[in-house]
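hey so u asked for the seq, here:
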Amino acid sequence: MIDYSYAETGNIPNKLICFLPINHRLVTIMITKPDTRGVYSLLIEITRGTRIQVGGLGIIKLPAGYYVYTGSAMGKGSSSLEGRIKRHLSDKKNNFWHIDYLLADSNSKIIGVIFAETLKNREHDVVRELKNQGEVICKKFGASDCKRDCVSHLLYVRQSLSEILDIIRETYKKLNLEPITIIF
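ran it, structure tokens below
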């Protein structure tokens, strides 16, 4: 059973959070004006330690626990904020990005999404602020083309779920972003 009791929308106008059935599972999709740009952080749970072949990074070993993956959505259509989040939540996609390989593993699942609209690419700023809260398990994960010296856009975090959510939201607010949080 999915808990719908926690959906924080903040004070941002023109936002609607709805629940739609896709591929026999309920997912949350953010509906907003078309081609919205922004930054997002996926809260991922790996239920059992696993080894995953991740594109050019090779085989990585990931212990069970919570992870935060941060990305940007600075384009239109499938590269928009809605497009990126929908892709990550979809079960049917080809593995292209590092995160696709992780999410395709049967031991991993997205348990939350925190995102904010912004016209400026802030993923590196979010990662830089969060890096002291987590541990890098795989260097260059999601950051192989990063020009700002990000070690990884995937962090292993040991805090409780509520602490992690608070840390991510506070990080967004510190960067003058207005986070929207969805928990599955």
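DSSP finds four helices and ten strands in the chain. Residues 7-183 form one domain.
lmk if thats what u needed
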